[in-house]
Amino acid sequence: MTFTLPTDIDARPVAVLGAGTLGRRIALMFATRGGQVRVYDPSAEAGKQACAYVEEHGAEVASRVGGAPGSVVSTTDLAEALAGAWLVVEAVPERLELKKQVFADLDRLADADAILASNSSSYPTSQFVDHVTRPERVVNMHFYMPPAQAAVDLMSSGHTDRAVLDLLLEVLPRYGVFPFEARRESTGFIFNRIWAAIKREALAVVADGVSTPEDVDRMWMINTGLKGGPFRMMDQVGLDVVLDIENHYAAENPGLPTGPRELLKGYVDAGHLGVKTGRGFYDYGTRD
Ligand code: NAD
């Protein structure tokens, strides 16, 4: 079956599912061309916070993109969020069973020509399409941390209509984000794989007793001109999350060295998860 691309997209809303860390940032980027963004979250409070976030930053980001601030509304009714939307971006928690359920619901409830995109960091959409009748409209669209980190990975579900990828490659830059296509299925897409290798080797250098987190970060900053090093950045993400991500890569590639995971596990077991607990590779003062 071939998929009929959505038309009239400038006049139709974009729906974002999940109003958390990423959902609200995705909503912000799609609210830069004057159109409507609808945020769906079962938590009305999260939806409200997402709208406040978009309203706070919308004008500045829209002017940077050369557009105009759009409107954002939140709802706890999925069908209401989806009605008329040309694009739906899923940013719900990273649980495979939940994602499968969400895509089955989207397949049933979204407009027939709506593109269904997942922001999942670790699951390819090929794992969500079992209960989807039109997998040719399903695609991975993985954001980093917009508006500051505005690159986006695009990746086929294995069934995605080529025209869907081409449309997104053409349209996304208008919203101030920069799409890059993974040419085949890849855990971690493009940039996250490279970043994973940098984190892994930085951890290995410390696990091997060659250097310290502080020295690695200092060298990194001196040589790259960037403001933060890999250890400081891992502390910000959370060392439990960094360990989960590394475990996920190791499950697929058992040849990866164990030293980086053992080093992380030592911190996680001691409750030193980074900024959120007040201590990780660095000390941030206690948080109670
Ligand atoms: P989060 O926990 O901050 O937010 C998730 C939101 O989803 C919450 O507000 C929750 O109430 C809501 N939610 C729960 N069930 C829902 C449902 N059935 N329908 C709609 N909303 C629901 O999570 P996050 O960090 O924004 O991550 C969301 C997705 O984005 C994950 O797939 C993650 O892999 C991906 N991602 C996260 C990051 C990151 O740095 N946090 C970066 C790139 C991609």
Layout of helices and strands, plus pairs?
Blueprint lengths: L13 E4 L3 H10 L5 E5 L3 H22 L5 E5 L2 H5 L4 E4 L5 H14 L5 E4 L19 E8 L3 E8 L5 H10 L6 E4 L9 H17 L5 H12 L5 H8 L1 H14 L6 H11 L19
The structure holds nicotinamide-adenine-dinucleotide.
Number of helices: 10
The structural class is alpha/beta
In CATH, what is the homologous superfamily of the largest domain? NAD(P)-binding Rossmann-like Domain
- Fraction of residues in helix: 40-55%
Using the coordinates shown, work out and report the CATH topology of the largest domain: Rossmann fold
Largest sheet: 8 strands, mixed
What is the C-level CATH assignment of the largest domain? Alpha Beta
Number of strands: 8
% residues in beta strands: 5-15%
Shape: globular
Strand order within the widest beta sheet: 3-2-1-4-5-6-7-8
SSE string, helix = H, strand = E? EHEHEHEHEEEHEHHHHH
- Tell me the radius of gyration: 20 Å
Mean pLDDT score, rounded? 95
Distance between the termini: 56 Å
What small ligands are held by the chains?
A: nicotinamide-adenine-dinucleotide
List low-pLDDT spans.
none
CATH architecture of the largest domain: 3-Layer(aba) Sandwich
